[in-house]
Amino acid sequence: MELKNGENSYGVISRANHWISAFLFIGLVILGIYMHELDKGPEKTELYALHKSLGIGLFMLMILRLVWLKVSPNPEQLSKTKFEHILGHAVKGILYLAMLILPISGWVMSNSGGHPVAFFDLFTLPTIVGENHDIHEIAEEVHEIGKWMLLIILLHVAGALKHHIVYKDSTLLRMLGRK
Ligand code: HEM
């Protein structure tokens, strides 16, 4: 079992991070859209707390991912055309940015709205901004970008499937740890 990434392979650390993050990311977007529509009540309160905890989890994985990228860089993308090379990198770049901007804007939004951000019952993140209506509104606008991430994920998955089905290369297989 190889921990590090190779020239044409993903090691177990990157693969585990990718699939756990993917599961969390998709879950967070769906949960975020669903809980927003709920009327005020205990279910909404509980789901907001869960959304924050999972969001902190994704943020911690993103920090680990950035550290791991320095230790063990990802294999180069297998691109057929220049357009697909740029598109693939752009889509992954947007996902990277989203995994930083969405948790941070959520943190700012909660704190500026006068609410703490806790990771389950384990710890509470420090308050990064005090209560402030204007900052809250801006952070809310930024956080709403999250809704559009379903489209970006769709493009990302379509790219992975095109490589697997049309080009029959190792793009998807190496992320699954197969040869
Ligand atoms: C079922 C859903 C998914 C599939 C099938 C999938 C598939 C893949 C594949 C095959 C690669 C490797 C691409 C390459 O080597 O060039 C990859 C990389 C990547 N994926 Fe996904 N992915 C999925 C969901 C997601 C989600 C939801 C995210 C958002 C967090 C995400 C973020 C990334 C990132 C950032 C990379 C770049 C490599 C890395 O840093 O780990 N993926 N994905």
Automatic annotation (TrEMBL):
<keyword id="KW-0812">Transmembrane</keyword>
<keyword id="KW-0249">Electron transport</keyword>
<keyword id="KW-0349">Heme</keyword>
<feature type="transmembrane region" description="Helical">
    <location>
        <begin position="12"/>
        <end position="35"/>
    </location>
</feature>
<dbReference type="Pfam" id="PF01292">
    <property type="entry name" value="Ni_hydr_CYTB"/>
</dbReference>
<keyword id="KW-1003">Cell membrane</keyword>
<protein>
    <submittedName>
        <fullName>Cytochrome b</fullName>
    </submittedName>
</protein>
<keyword id="KW-1133">Transmembrane helix</keyword>
<keyword id="KW-0472">Membrane</keyword>
<comment type="similarity">
    <text>Belongs to the cytochrome b561 family.</text>
</comment>
<keyword id="KW-0479">Metal-binding</keyword>
<feature type="transmembrane region" description="Helical">
    <location>
        <begin position="89"/>
        <end position="109"/>
    </location>
</feature>
<keyword id="KW-0408">Iron</keyword>
<dbReference type="InterPro" id="IPR011577">
    <property type="entry name" value="Cyt_b561_bac/Ni-Hgenase"/>
</dbReference>
<feature type="transmembrane region" description="Helical">
    <location>
        <begin position="148"/>
        <end position="167"/>
    </location>
</feature>
<dbReference type="InterPro" id="IPR016174">
    <property type="entry name" value="Di-haem_cyt_TM"/>
</dbReference>
<keyword id="KW-0813">Transport</keyword>
<feature type="domain" description="Cytochrome b561 bacterial/Ni-hydrogenase">
    <location>
        <begin position="10"/>
        <end position="177"/>
    </location>
</feature>
<dbReference type="InterPro" id="IPR052168">
    <property type="entry name" value="Cytochrome_b561_oxidase"/>
</dbReference>
<feature type="transmembrane region" description="Helical">
    <location>
        <begin position="47"/>
        <end position="68"/>
    </location>
</feature>
